[in-house]
Amino acid sequence: MAVRNYLFLICLLLSFYVVGSVQSATPSNAPLVIAVDADFSTVAAEGGEAIYRGARLAVENINEQGGLLGHPLKLVRSDHRGNPGRGIANINQLAETENLLAVIGGVHTPVAMAQLDAIHKHNLLYLGAWAAGTPVVDNGYAPNNVFRVSIRDSEAASVLLQHAKSRGLHRVALVLERTGWGRSNHDSLHEAAAKLDIDIVKVTWINWQQSTFAQDAGAIADTNAQAIILVANAPESAVVARAVKKQFPGPMPIIAHWGLAGGDFVSMLSLPVLATMDISVIQTFSFLHQSNPEAQSLFTQYKNRYDNAISPESVPAVVGLAHAYDLVHLLATAVKSAECKNTDVVRDALENLPAIQGAVKRYSPAFSSTRHDALWSDDYFMSRFDNMGNLIPYTR
Amino acid sequence: MSHPVSLAGKLQRVLFPRLLAALFVVSILICGAVLYFAQEQVADRQMHHAKILQDDIQISLQDALRLLQSVADNDIIVNSFIDYEQRDTYLPLFFRTLRLTRSDAFRLALYDFAAQPIITKNWNSALPDDFVQQWQSRTLEAGSKTVEVTADGVMLAVPVRLGDSVEGALVLYVDRIEDLIYPRENTAVQIITDNDNVVLYSSDDTVVARGQSFSDSQFANWISQTLHWNTLNVHSLAPLSTVYQSLFWLLSLLLCCIIATVLISVYAVRRSASLAGETLSSLHNSIAESMYNQTPSRSVAPPDEAAELALIRDAFDELKDNLLSISLSNRQFANVIDSLEELLVVLDNNDNVLMANRPYSDSAHTLGFDHRMLSSLKNEVSESSSTIDKSYVNKYHQEVTIKWELLPFSDQNKNIIGSILIGNNVTERRKLESMNRLMSHAMQSATVAIGIAEFTESRLSIIYVNEYFTRLTGYALDDVKGKPLVTLTGQQTELQKIEIINTQIQSGESVDETIVLHKQNGSVFHTRLILTPVRYNKTVTHYVAFCQDITEQEQTRRYLIDAKAKAEESARLKSSFLASMSHEVRTPLHGVSGTLQLIDNTPLDERQQYYLSLARQSLQNLQHIVDDILDFSKIEAGQLNIERINFNLPLLIKTITAQYEPECEKKSVTLHTTTAFNDATMVCGDPVRLRQILGNLLSNAVKFTESGHIKLQFLLDKNQHQLTLTGRVTDSGIGIDKDKCESIFEVFTQEDSTTTRRFGGTGLGLAITRQLCQLLGGDIEVDSQKGTGSTFQFTIHLLPANELPAAEAIDSAAAPIDSVPQSLRILLVEDNKINQIIAKENLKNHKLMMAETGEAALAALRHVKTPFDLVLMDCQMPVMDGYEATRRIRAGEAGQTHQTVPVIALTANAMKGDKEACFEAGMTDYISKPFTAEDLARVLGRISA
């Protein structure tokens, strides 16, 4: 109770300051800015685009209802191209932006990890829509400016391995990208495996833009692995899948983290090859899986805005869409409750949100002061590819 | 007169001064050319060196650039951009292992997108500013590769890409060009300068050092070549003295060549002179030899003779041979003229003989030709303006005919300078022509059609026909010439015969065939065609055809055949008529006979008995007549069957004579029989017919003998396998006139018409008897005198009895009826009511059932409860005859119980084949109608036994 009062006092004081500065520096109807910093051009361009679309639909909703704090919302985007260095530079540049509410970041844990320093240096709010690395959120900063609606590797590991176990696969090989994301999963998968009594018989690493995986596939074949846990982005996942297809006579089960869903994995691999393979992918959202009114509304908006003929299962990188959409709404609720745009106040409001129905789920609430991850292992599900290369949830 | 110089000496004297002069000039030219080309070559070499240096640098730069790009594309490098935290663990190691140029003295750095170094190698000092500007703008921003070569050194930069975007750059810097290329391997001095002629590279620092300024004036006595490449100049230099060094070896070589040329020339001159000399001397020898021998001779080819010389020598030999052979052909011409058969004499315009061949000379000698005769002959021939025949008589007094022809004799200019008389001895030919005319006339006037056809390509084409042929067929020679023989055939010609004729012609045989041919006007005629092959050297070349018109003969033959067929048909009709008549007569006869028997079984008084016996007598006569007619018609129709069965000959004669004994006793005529059988009893033959013959003769004898005796004599002769029975019946009856003795054996004749009235009879008896005798292999004859009696003597052939037992039928009539069968169940199938009644009476002891047709019989058999023991089956019935009914019974249509029931045929037909037909239909036995109670009883006995 004391903490609350204390926070309220700070917010009050800061709001005076902010309002004063806004009045002096900007016109009263100047838009509040939300930035989307994502990969729009390299390995996860589809993911980046989906995040932007989700955020944009949410922003449009809010603007239709009069905006926030009397200001319209404006969405800007920057392209980190999957390059952490560029990501840092983007944050440094965005920090200069007037009226910046938050940065919605997405796709690639390495970028998010690299950006942490700059985010906290500039005291920006970072809303993670698609970056699963556990240390992105558990980053050691206090206060922690990172909030996330996304998969969390430490939780994903148990879901991936549980899926393997449920299919009677007890010996797995890991294929991890040689980055912070791969290492994040390396640790969490080993922990989860120990708990689930699953043997990790082989760990292989793959570089970004590595063009062949034949040797490693051969090494996996030399073990008695029953399945492959794949943690990589679309281009590398396609390289791995092709090598596995070539190496193993029958379909070797591949249980994949969601990295491959962020890019155009299907066309890189080709539908006929995909059809012969056994690939499961962890997901948090699907218009086939979530049927709440928010999700339905999101689908309707998406269709109206982008593609009238699209079917629920073929929305590309749909998790990014849903996560960003929900994040913007959560942010808006927090800003409304904070009644100011001050980072510290809004962060506090985010940690104290009421229960809110989102597209992904009903957040009750989304975050707390100790937990900045909105989604947990219960919210993940496994899916597989249908004949058209769309991800279809496994029915429970 | 000086001694002539040899060919070799002469050639040498002419050749040497000129050769030496030419060699001197050529040597001077060669030296000049060598100097010029050596200079050119050195210049070329310098250009080549410069080019190699340029290529070397270019390739080195390209290699370094390619290597650099492959490093930049390495996924370790790319991954390091992403793997922010841990790249320091593997990137330095990776960089340390890189070797990108030929020397280790290179600097390398990896920059990020913001041109901040991520890692460097040997990077001691900063790059010159313009280099930094270059790679940042071109590589990091524009994404293309950068290559810079300046006095400051060499810099290469390549982009590092993440997907499609440039996210960094890899920069390589070398401060001296030497570090990129290997040391030069040639003696030339090679220099690279920039646009300001500052030396960037020098292969020989003693000549010009790096960093100095380079100017052309420094190298005036050098051969220099320069290439411009990008902003650089590549020079290659060589001192002029190197050119002259190349001349020293040339001078000695030239001297050697001159000496060798002179030596070779001397040898060549001597050699060619000797070659020509040998050929010429060989020719000389050959001419000398030919002149001496007057025969063609070939010159000898010297060894190693040149082709041209050989050609000349051969041509010369040819010419020489031609000269020799012209005189030879003159002689041959004379021989040819003499060998001609014709007489040839050439006269000049004054009729003097210029030339005559040997035949002329010979004829002139034997026929006495002289100048006067030739002169008049020439005039005669030229007047007649064609050939003329002249006859002469030789010394053997034989006439010789010569055909003379006159030709003008012209010189080369077509001027007539005389005449040529050619005489042909045509004596033989004229004789042949005369003979030919005769033959032709004979052929033309022959009264048989003659044609000649030529045999070409396996077909015959007419080449000649005579006048009679034209008269016969209507075809003139022109109509048929060249046409095939088949021209005369037509619709009515038998194709088969044409086939036969063709086959014979193809095999070259003669043909003799009667055939129908067509005249030109379409009418047909029968002809006998005779084709005779004409052979030459065993090959058939022609056929001569003779055509005889036999139309009338053919018509006559046809008429006769028709007439014969008609006659035979009429005889057959007659017999058939008789047969059917006798059959028709038999049926009522049977009725009458049966009825009389039935009456006989009733109680009668004496008068009635007497009348009845009269009636029976008449009936027997009638039956006899009908039997005769039937037999006769059988014989006429060829249906009389002669059997061969064993029988007892003495017994047979005894039983026959026994039949006539009562009547003879009545007439007080003695009947006496003598036999000479040599103990033979059983013989094989037809007892029925023998009985008939004997019966006929005996009944005649009894009939015509009122008193006295009748003698029977039998003689059995045995020769080889055959027996001949001779029988003689002698009576003392009325006798026959001598002149009637033969005619009594003819049909329907008796001795005279009064006999018929007195004795009755059909007049068939003896005719049948004779026919029977003849059928049995013998004959019959009669010896008689009117009023004193007759002797009939017959012979028949018999066979010795074979193993088979004597048939029962030998004398079945006499066989006793042992067992009268008990009451039987009998089905009588008979359509004739009278026959039914007779049968019913005769079969009173049995249970009898009637059926009128075959169908009714089958129905009765099917439906009767107690099965029948016997079926009596009439053969000829309406609806279904007896044969068919029997077949059906045997097929089981009347039920299984009756399938094997005995069926006795009742047949009025006694013709040949009836019995067989009955058995074939499955009948058990048969009775010929009219039958008596005894007949029936006998058959019944046989069945029940």
Description of the structure:
The complex is a heterodimer of chains A (396) and B (945). Chain A has helices spanning 2-25, 45-64, 84-94, 109-121, 134-137, 153-166, 180-196, 214-222, 234-247, 265-269, 271-275, 293-305, 318-338, 343-351, and strands at 32-38, 73-79, 100-106, 126-130, 146-148, 171-177, 199-206, 227-231, 254-256, 279-283, 356-357, 362-363, 381-385, 391-393. Chain A has 396 residues and is α/β, with parallel strands linked by helices. Chain A folds into 2 domains: 2-151 and 290-379, Rossmann fold (3-Layer(aba) Sandwich), CATH 3.40.50; 154-283, Rossmann fold. In chain A, the strands form 3 sheets. In chain A, strands 7-6-8-9-10-13-14 form a 7-stranded mixed sheet, with helices on both faces. In chain A, helix 5 links the parallel strand 4 and strand 5 (146-148). The longest helix of chain A is centred in the first third of the chain and has 24 residues, at 2-25. With 945 residues, chain B is α+β, with helices and mostly antiparallel strands. Among the domains of chain B are: 339-426, PAS domain (Beta-Lactamase, 2-Layer Sandwich), CATH 3.30.450; 446-549, Beta-Lactamase, CATH 3.30.450.20; 641-810, Heat Shock Protein 90 (2-Layer Sandwich); 817-944, Response regulator (Rossmann fold, 3-Layer(aba) Sandwich), CATH 3.40.50.2300. Chain B is 46% helix and 24% strand. Chain B has 23 helices and 31 strands. In chain B, strands 20, 21, 22, 23, 24, 25 and 26 form a 7-stranded mixed sheet that branches. In chain B, a hairpin with a 2-residue loop joins strand 18 (524-536) and strand 19 (539-549).
